[in-house]
Amino acid sequence: MAPVIRMAEDITEVTEHDLVELRRAALAEPLKRARICLHIDDTVLLQEMIIAMHRDTIVLPHRHPCKAESLHVLTGSMELIFFDDRGEEQRRIRMDAGSPSLSPIVRINKAIWHSINVLSEFVVVHEVTLGPFDSNSTELAEWNYC
Fold first, then answer.
1. What's the pLDDT tens digit per position in 91-144?
2. Structural contact between residues 67 and 88, judged by C-beta atoms closer than 8 angstroms
3. Cα-based distances in Å from 95 to 10, 17, 68, 75, 77
4. pLDDT at residue 1 in the model
5. Are the CB atoms for 39 and 50 separated by under 8 Å?
6. DSSP letters for 64-87
7. Coil, strand or helix at 128
8. Element of type H or E holding 4
9. CATH class of the region 4-140
10. Neighbours of 138 (CB within 10 A)
């Protein structure tokens, strides 16, 4: 599992220095990603994270039964790739923090198979989902071939 940095305080501020350190931490990890948790602990009902992923990161197709998820690209660019139950690609959404023609924010309202392809050297996203956190609540696709 990628490193988790906890910054949850009564008022949590994430600075550019924090993002630089987060990218540095991601680069040092085998999975090439790291996260800052903004929520107080894993039991709260709203989970917010700042996640840095290097272009070498692999996000296997997965879904989150009974949970919605929002992704907001803060820096860099990526693709969200959506699949049907057989693993057939259904849609791609290119996301970019600075492009007026690309979406910086996507919300996934139900358990849809999805993956992420990082297009820039790094992408940093603000992810919001429902808690409490349960590592077993993410379902990996059986048709993953990685």
1. 999 999 999 999 999 999 999 999 999 999 999 999 999 988 887 888 999 886
2. no
3. 31, 23, 18, 10, 6
4. 47
5. no
6. -TT--EEEEEEESEEEEEEE-TTS
7. strand
8. strand 4-6
9. mainly beta
10. 13
**Residue-level pLDDT at 145:** 57
Cβ contact 37:4 at 8 Å: yes
| pLDDT of 3 | 82
> Is 119 in contact with 77 (CB distance < 8 Å)?
yes
User: What's the distance, Cα to Cα, between the start and end of the chain in Å?
Assistant: 17
**Is 32's pLDDT higher than 80?**
yes
Query: Which residues are 4's β-sheet partners?
Result: 35
